[in-house]
Amino acid sequence: MKSEEGTYHVPVLLSESVEGLNIKADGIYVDVTFGGGGHSREILKQLGKKGHLYSFDQDADAEANVVDDERFTFVRSNFRYLKNWMRYYEVEYVDGLLADLGVSSHHFDDADRGFSFRFDAPLDMRMNKRAGQTAADIVNNYDEQRLADVFYLYGELKQSRRIAAAIVNWRKDKRISTTADLMEATDKLFLREREKKEQTKLFQALRIEVNHEMEALRDMLLGATEVLGKGGRLSVITYHSLEDRIVKNVMRAGNVEGRIKQDFFGRAESPFRLVNNKVITPSDEELECNPRSRSAKLRIAEKI
Known about the structure:
By secondary structure, the chain is α/β, with parallel strands linked by helices. About 40% of the residues lie in helices and about 15% in strands. Helix 7 (about 145-155) crosses helix 8, helix 7 (about 145-155) crosses helix 10 and helix 11 runs parallel beside helix 12. It is globular and about 60 Å long.
C-alpha cells in the first residue's frame, strides 16, 4: 500500500536541491534520504529511459512510498554504506547525489516513535526499528559524564551537566521509559520562556546519539567523494550547525575537519568546486507553507 507523499513528509527546497544536481537525462543519481519520496520523484521526472535513480532509507515505513519505476532502485540501508551498495550494484560513478538531512514530518507526527515531546510515547527514536539501542537505553545506562557530553556536543545545551545529573538522580528510583518520564525528570531545569527550544535540543541530542547521525554523515560524504564522477553534483540540505559544519568542510576541503591541503605551489586542493558560495534558504512562500523548513540550508558542490 502506498501512502500519499503529503501525509508522510513535505519535501524541503525541492526545486532548488534537484536543480542543483544539473540532471542529465541518461545519468545515474542517488537520493540517500528517500523518506516520502518527494525529491526522488522530482529527479525521476527529469531522467530519460536510460537514466537510473538509487534511493536509500533505513526506515521500513519509507518502503510504503516506493516508486514503481524500472529506472528506480530502493536500497533499505543506512546511507553510510553508500560506497558498498554502489559497488554491489556495479556502479562505478554517479552523476549526482542528493541528501535532505532533516527528520521527516512522519517521524515527528508518529506518536509511537518517541521523536517528539508532543506525545507520551516509548522513548525509542530509532530510525531503524530493527536494530540498535533506544533513547531509553541511553538515558538509563550511560553514566553522568557521558550523558553530559551527548547533550553538550549534539544539543549544544549549556546546562548539559545539570540535565545529566537530574536524569541520573531520577533513574535511581524509576526507569525513564517514555517521553513523559524524560520531560518530568528534567522539567525544572528549563526556564519557561525557553522551555520548548531547550527541550527540542535535548530530544535532538538523543536522536543523534541513538542513530549515530554524525558518524553516518561523515561516512556518506566521504563515500560520495569517491563515487561521484567528474562533474558530478553533491546537493545537501542541512538543518543544524553540527551537520552543516561537516557538509561545508567536506565541500570546501574534502575532509570533515576542514583542513585545506595545498599542492607544491601552495594552491588549495579539494575534490569539489562550490556551486553556491552562499547557502540557499527557503523562500518566504515555502516558509509560509512549511514552517519546519525555516532552519534549512542548501549547499551544492561539483566534483572536480
